[in-house]
Amino acid sequence: MTEEEARIAVCKAGKKLLKEGLVARTWGNVSIRLNDTDMIITPSGRPYEELEPEDMVCVNYKIHTYEGSIKPSSEYKLHTAIYKTRKNVNAVIHTHQMNASTVAVARREIPPILDDQAQLLGPSVRVAPYALPNTKKIVKATVKALKGRNAALMANHGAVCIGRDIEEVFVCCQVLEKAAKAFIEAEFLGGAKSINKFEAWAMHKYYLLKYSKEAKKNK
Predict the structure, then answer these.
(1) For the chain, percent helix, then strand, then coil, each to nearest 5?
(2) What pLDDT is recorded for position 211?
């Protein structure tokens, strides 16, 4: 993906998140890994509906420098830490989506309760302990919660989803919201019943290693 293509993709993803109700106003952020040193990320404090591709910011995630006068999202350090620790991840979306945020407020881990959740997100969705936004503590806690997963909740804050490309990450956000909603509502019916953790892990591995590749061949 060229820098121009990445800017367009990040801008479109931000507007799509707003349309889908996964973010509000200027909250949340989106990035795409451009190469071995740079990423393209949404800017700080700008409404999604007003964004243009040229407003996206190119950040060197190795040394935390950026080009131009527009500041990157204040949470860009979370994105840089993910790219440094997850070599197969090429896109990151941080949201404040309603149902996932509700579960994050309750600080409840979401067990593997849906097949598509287990396949895309992993054998559970952990909750990173609360820490002040934009701090080393929240970055470290969130990266740890993402280990072996494609999504994590951030206590009293929101959620973060990761993936091999921006399309996969957007689906992860949608599946996370579906799983969070199912988890909340199942609690009123006696509690959510979990899929066997071994089977959930096997489904996630199958998705990563085989199913998603076969799906791309069929496009």
Answers:
(1) 45, 15, 35
(2) 65
Closest CA to 172 of 101, 104, 94: 94
* Chain position carrying tokens 């109700």: 21
Relative to beta strand 29-33, strand 38-41 is antiparallel
The predicted structure's pLDDT at residue 218: 44
Identify the CA nearest to 180 among candidates 195, 197, 192: 192
Tell me how far apart the alpha carbons of residues 69 and 73 are, in angstroms, rounded to a whole number: 13
Place of tokens 């367009």: 8
DSSP conformation letters of 113-175: -SHHHHHHH-S-B-EEPP--TTSHHHHHHHHHHTTT-SEEEETTTEEEEEESSHHHHHHHHHH
pLDDT at 65: 95
The mean predicted confidence, pLDDT, of the chain is 93
Question: How far does CA 120 lie from the centroid of its chain?
Answer: 12
Contact between residue 119 and residue 176 where contact means Cβ atoms under 8 Å apart: no
- With a cut of 80, say whether residue 171 has pLDDT above it: yes
Residue range 68-96: average pLDDT? Answer: 96
Cα–Cα distance, 47 to 41 (Å, whole number)? 14
CA 70, CA 57: separation in Å to the nearest integer? 7
pTM exceeds 0.90 for this model: yes
